Amino acid sequence: MNIKTILIILGEPNSTFSEILFKNFKKIKQNKRTNIVLVGNIELFRAQMKALKYKILLNEIYEIKQAQKSIINIINVEYKFKTAFSKISNRSNSYIEECFKFGLKLAQKDKSMAIINGPVSKKHFLDKKFPGITEYVAKKTNSKDPVMLIYNEHLSVSPLTTHVPIKKVANFIKREKIINSVNKINNFYKFKLGKFPKIAVLGLNPHCETNDKISEEKKEIIPAIKYLNKKNITISGPYSADSFFLKKNINNFDVVIGMYHDQVLTPIKTLFKFNAINITIGLPFVKITPDHGPNHEMIGKNKSDPSSINYALKFLNKLR
Known about the structure:
The model has no long low-confidence stretch (mean pLDDT about 90). By secondary structure, the protein is of the alpha/beta class. It has helices spanning about 15-25, 40-50, 95-110, 120-125, 135-140, 175-190, 215-230, 240-245, 245-250, 260-270, 305-320; strands spanning about 5-10, 35-40, 60, 70-75, 115, 145-150, 155-160, 200, 235-240, 255-260, 275-280, 285-290. It is built from 11 helices and 12 strands. It has 2 domains: about 1-145 and about 285-320, 3-Layer(aba) Sandwich (Isopropylmalate Dehydrogenase); about 150-275, Isopropylmalate Dehydrogenase.
């Protein structure tokens, strides 16, 4: 089903996300079939717009059916603020929670809706209760085992473990987890992008070797790859991560499965910078997080790169 409404949950109010949206909306050409609806405080959004000297026409609505395709729509969520931009703190937590609660409820009811969420503070909003926004949204939608896919049309990556400390990563490298992640990614490409992806799997240990009695490659990773090959999934590995991201290698694949967060996110950001998006696979709807955080050091400076939100909107407009 084509995406008819893109719901943008504004997230942390004291971030660069509003600036990035202003830059994008200033030049955006509305798609004839897609509504854009923001969920957040309209007065704060206008105050930030004024502070950064942008002029974007907003249409305040109270339900989705009032949305118009020729304008940026917004559903207001109450929030008391003193200045357009402040320091990030726990003060915005209940507001962010309400934005997510409202947006997730709408998206669960309507399969033609997709969500883009603005960044949140792991320190203040998630407060160690969730390792990341991926896990937070999964919990709120009763979704099991979500998969993080950092997507670029030329090459995407997926960390098998997300925000797990390095000393604990090996505990999560399990055959069943690899099979589950690969199946979800393969189905996403197949049914949403109309493509059968070529998937590479990286090893955990340097050169995929270890002198220990237990080898994660031999015990968990290789058996998972062999099983998936029998299911007609195009997958190979494990490959040594130190040399895998050379051009001659990555040109042969669509997706790279890494064993931990920085093993694959560092090279993908080096290759594509902000031309990538964070897709959460395994939810009742499509959810994207632009590939940047609140970036408190850049708030109010009007110097942030809008590439990721632009990439997200273009991606959703071509999604099946």
